[in-house]
# Entry
Amino acid sequence: MHTGSVSTKELSYICDSMKNEETLVKLCVHGAVESQNPQLKQFFYQLSHERFQDYNQLMNVLDHHSGQTQYS
Amino acid sequence: MYNQSTSTMGQQMGQQHVALPDKDMANIVLSELKRMSREYTTACLEAANPMVHQTFNQLLQKSLADQMQLFQLMNQQGMYNVTAAPTQEIQKEQQKFRQCGFETQQFMQQYLGGGQTTAGMMGGQNAQPTSQATMNQMTSNYGMPSGMGTMPPGASSTTTSSNINASGNPQMRAGSGTSSGMSSGSGMSTQMSSTTQDHSKKYLI
# Structure
């Protein structure tokens, strides 16, 4: 295997991680909308945006190795 | 019958809006961040590609930071209380592991022969400062104050702060005939050897 390519195991971890990030973003959105505590509300709001960036970071890794850049 | 009961239940559930308490919601997100940290650790350990490894490592650090931030927020809000360990328990463990440290030190000296061997194995001159630092740390950690009651048989109880000079370096015991002023070069091995021998005298008599 070329050292620059992604292994099947790494691809699995990337996909699992993206699923985790997606779930976390949705949980945070729910928390930001439903929470009664202003500080928690603010925290969830910020976290949802930050974790969506992390989702995109993982997406960029996939793009980098797929040879097709559709996401930026 | 089954369909009827499920549809009734469905109507009841549909009518109600379940508001999850803030504490539960925070706990779910906290658990999720902890789980993700574990998964990123595994992913990081398994990644062969440097770019993928770096990405997982960055996301691990971020997950840990987010988890810590949420925990602190929950702690401030009284949603997550932490009980302090009793001082007595800490002291008990401290004594137990101090003894364990002595035994490990003895084990190392028995099989590695102390600093000289280690320095030789690690390629000589470059490895020596580390060896000395390790020795200093060992002395400071296991140089027990007198009266602790966990000294190995025959060990000198004089290895206290009085044997450690202002710069933190261990001083030789009187009569060992070794200078602690050497800093580099081949003389270092001699010093390490003497230090080790001196050290061994303290615990292996």
